[in-house]
Amino acid sequence: MVDLKAIADQYDIDLEQLQVEKGEVSLEVLQAYIVEHFYPRIQKEEKVLGFRKVIAERLSESYRNAVHVTINMDIDPTNLLVLKEKTQGNPSLTVIMLKLVAFALKDCPNLNATLEDNVIKVYDSVNICVAVDAPYGLVTPVIRDVDKKSVADLVTEYEDVVSRARAGQLKEKDFVGGTFTITNLGMLGVDSFTPVINPPQVAILGINRIKDVVVLENNEPRLAKSMTLSLSVDHRVVDGAPGARFLQKVKEYFENASALE
Question: Which residues form the 2-oxoacid dehydrogenase acyltransferase catalytic domain (predicted)?
């Protein structure tokens, strides 16, 4: 017999309140409620057919153990640091970047997608998973509707999910419905890496450390800041050019100090 309370507890659902809203609560009613409130809304859905299916099948065969391609792009994070200082509450850079990446995903929705059973789903919801180095291993809990939430709300949610991840208190609801993933190794001094895609998602963005570099300006050397973004995409769905265009959008938002105003 299915334990409805056990399922509801994983999503912090009050069964008595749900009964008031829906009447008799069956497994079907509970599942429908979970899908409505915890899974992303689909913008479009299409079968992988024709040349794209052929490409997908061939790439799966050729890259059975590594179907992803990684693109790196250097940015100037100076204005990103300014934006952090200007934002009320002085939130972490990760939270600031979450919000800005959400803007870029709205501009490039084909990266805000999943691929399962030859079906590509592109989502209207921007539900970003954040990689957390927990004591028991790497986990990727999700923060939903990042594009619609204020930075203050994102700070609260991010701190909550990281705290619960490190305490081993995550629930099933924290792992469903993700549409994209960010992993930040910058705080560990990493300059560049190859992020591993979080299936069934089709892309993941790696954040690297901010470092000092020497650049030439009017033939004169000067000290500047630099950071590398590492984007891995599933080449069955996302080709190199769309991936690069997405990175360009992220670069634009990161280098624009007024992006959150």
Answer: 43-259
Check the CA dihedral 131-67-43-93 and report its sign.
positive
Q: What is the DSSP letter of 201?
A: B
Could you tell me if 158 and 144 are in contact, meaning their C-beta atoms sit under 8 angstroms apart? Answer: no
What total number of domains does the chain contain?
A: 2
Domain limits at 196?
Answer: 41-254
DSSP 155: H
Q: Which of the four pLDDT bands, split at 50, 70 and 90, describes residue 87?
A: confident
**What are the φ and ψ backbone dihedral angles of 239, each rounded to 5 degrees?**
-85, 175
238/138: higher pLDDT: 238
Distant-in-sequence, close-in-space partners of 56: CB < 8 Å, separation ≥ 6: 48, 115, 118, 236, 237
The answer on pLDDT for 66 being more than 50 is no
Q: What is the distance, to the nearest Å, from the Cα of residue 141 to the centroid of all Cα atoms in its chain?
A: 10
Q: Is residue 229 part of a domain?
A: yes
Active site residues: 235
Does residue 147 contact residue 106 with C-beta atoms inside 8 Å?
Answer: yes
Cis geometry, peptide bond prior to residue 200 (ω within 30 degrees of 0): yes
Helix (H/G/I), strand (E/B), else coil: 163: helix
